[in-house]
Amino acid sequence: MPTDSIWSYARDLDHVRGEDLTGWSVVASDGTVGHVDRQAGHHGMAHLVVDTGVWVFGRSLLVPVGVVAAVDTVERKLTVSCTRGELKAAPRFRTDSETMDLTYLTAVGDYYRALPAPRRPAG
Question: Which one, 1, 23, 66, 93, has the greatest CB density within 10 A?
Answer without folding.
Answer: 66
